[in-house]
Amino acid sequence: METTVKLYSLPYRSVKTYLAALLFALGNIVLPQLFHLMPQGGVTWLPIYFFTLVGAYKYGWRVGLLTAVLSPVVNSALFGMPAMAVLPAILLKSLLLALIAGYAASYFKRASLGLLLGVVLAYQAVGTLGEWAMKGDFWLAAQDFRIGIPGMLLQVFGGWLFINRVIRK
């Protein structure tokens, strides 16, 4: 499914970049708190990545990178989630997501379900390899593919809905 939507690539010198990143980071702070109310909500639904995907795809990789760093660090500092032990892996995946989503949006200039699926699979696959290198445990590194499928689907379908319908302009 595809629709025409305006995609941006905001520069670092623009105040809009920082305002957008702040709003998306806030979303990435509130959403995980809601999902952490259910057992295994964080590892199942992967909510810390949702607004990083949306921000990077809609407003460019710079907004994505700011959101990708700010969200997990603030969440960890305020709520202890993600735990310090997993923060490097989450930051790696967040940064990969921001870069891949921003690149896909600027290259393809559209937001389709297929493209978002490709973005999510790409950052997860590369991120899993990076996490495996960090931790030396493939089974642990592949946790998102074992437990987080609902979260990846939320990113694809929810991200498409958010980009194409909620913040269309």
UniProtKB/TrEMBL annotation:
<keyword id="KW-0472">Membrane</keyword>
<feature type="transmembrane region" description="Helical">
    <location>
        <begin position="79"/>
        <end position="101"/>
    </location>
</feature>
<feature type="transmembrane region" description="Helical">
    <location>
        <begin position="17"/>
        <end position="35"/>
    </location>
</feature>
<protein>
    <submittedName>
        <fullName>ECF transporter S component</fullName>
    </submittedName>
</protein>
<keyword id="KW-0812">Transmembrane</keyword>
<dbReference type="GO" id="GO:0022857">
    <property type="term" value="F:transmembrane transporter activity"/>
</dbReference>
<feature type="transmembrane region" description="Helical">
    <location>
        <begin position="42"/>
        <end position="59"/>
    </location>
</feature>
<dbReference type="Pfam" id="PF12822">
    <property type="entry name" value="ECF_trnsprt"/>
</dbReference>
<dbReference type="InterPro" id="IPR024529">
    <property type="entry name" value="ECF_trnsprt_substrate-spec"/>
</dbReference>
<feature type="transmembrane region" description="Helical">
    <location>
        <begin position="145"/>
        <end position="163"/>
    </location>
</feature>
<keyword id="KW-1133">Transmembrane helix</keyword>
<feature type="transmembrane region" description="Helical">
    <location>
        <begin position="113"/>
        <end position="133"/>
    </location>
</feature>
